[in-house]
Specification:
563 residues, four-stranded parallel β-sheet, 21 strands, 29% helix
Amino acid sequence: MTSTVPNAVQHTDAQPPITMFGPDFPYAYDDFLAHPAGIGQIPATEHGAEVAVIGGGLSGIVAAYELMKMGLRPVVYEADRIGGRLRTVGFEGCDPALTAEMGAMRFPPSSTALQHYIDLVSLETKPFPNPLSPATPSTVVDLKGESHYARTIDDLPPVYREVMDAWNSCLEEGADFSDMNRAMRERDVPRIREIWAKLVEKLDDQTFYGFLCASDSFSSFRHREIFGQVGFGTGGWDTDFPNSILEILRVVYTEADDHHRGIVGGSQQLPLRLWEREPQKLVHWPLGTSLSSLHDGQPRGAVTRLDRTAGNHVTVTDATGDIRTYRAAVFTGQSWLLLSKIACDDALFPIDHWTAMERTHYMESSKLFVPVDRPFWLDKDATTGRDTMSMTLTDRMTRGTYLLDDGPGKPAVICLSYTWCDDSLKWLPLSPKERMDVMLKSLGEIYPGVDIRKHVIGNPVTVSWENEPYFMGAFKANLPGHYRYQRRLFTHFMQDRLPADKRGLFLAGDDISWTAGWAEGAVQTALNAVWGVMAQFGGATDPTNPGPGDVFDDIAPVELPEG
């Protein structure tokens, strides 16, 4: 709803922008990408060597793109469509320009490595209409049958300001928020590591809800309840209450929940444009080469089996029965696929890495969108002078309703509901039409004089990510005690630490990252894997631009004892 940054932190134009710079691994991926020396090279004798890239989501496409630029030949496997959870869909029978973001739809400015690629393919962004953001004409908060109309937080009853202040105090008292936020903004690596090491040891076994309860600022159940249902930033936080507080701190330290922007025309354009892009600076391949041209326009299909074979190679079998063997492979799908959809050789990973994948906890998530004839919500109520309808946060089934338009008079889109976890599971058995009917009933109780249905011009589109066969969940969210598991997965790209017969297959994707649920994590882990593959082929970075593996020992994530 508003910035989570306590008032004690004063930001000025002279300060660098916050970035997803740690705290677990405070490496400047944006600087790495921007350096004129490039991100590394391999010996000429290895040019043209094939590397399997399994998964055509953002992480896989970024990895494949950078490997191609180095002179390797990425072979991309994709079971469904390029984009992964960057999935933009249209509405049958409607203007193709009218789209819905089924997965990632809002991106914080702190996603600076992601922004590198957004700029690279010349995509435009615009402010996303989150609750009470400047891009949102109005917000309605509806709890326990009582609705409040607001343009800023000051328009809400005082209890909402009390809840925001309680959250800021809780962060300051329990998590050194101002100190860490300042250190991250200044990229003060020693200070980041000093603060975070203490917090990891102290808080790894603590839930988000337990963290709130331990704070005097949240001694009131009423305040905790409102915070859970309404929250600050993108909306309610209660679906995260069982998760590790460390996951939440990673979000608020980096301002990942603030100042969001959407990609004009849809986020799936990013991986699709990278797939088609012909780099001007690339090694070995002639100008005009793209990932698309290397694949004759289409990636290979679903992977059905992975094996370790002679010489510590990785053998990939796809859905057509084709078998290929590679000296290196990058797996970017959600790790649960290695336990279910793909038949895997146990020798692919050390046993403790298999354990970490098995313990990965995914959040459920669902959305439903409908196309409408125009942004009717901007019509003014003749009696009150208020907007006819507003961005809506509620404790009813819909939870979060977002209003998306490209200007007056043009067709528009309503995200009738965006929910997570138990709230998402409530929708799972219902068809799209049944979901829409329940959602319109709930919204009709909040806006009794508004006939939303008469404005709908097409069938709804919906997704429940937990029911998607190649995802089985929306994104990773660690539970208390999972820090050690996450560390194993994130550091897997440092393969000189692994037994010789467990090398060559690299994990990437946002559930391998420390910032799951954000596209930035997909990009960062892709770059880690690219560094690992480069090292596997005897390559190196330029001394003036050390990669994440080159500086690993200096900034490695905290290692908790396992005894």
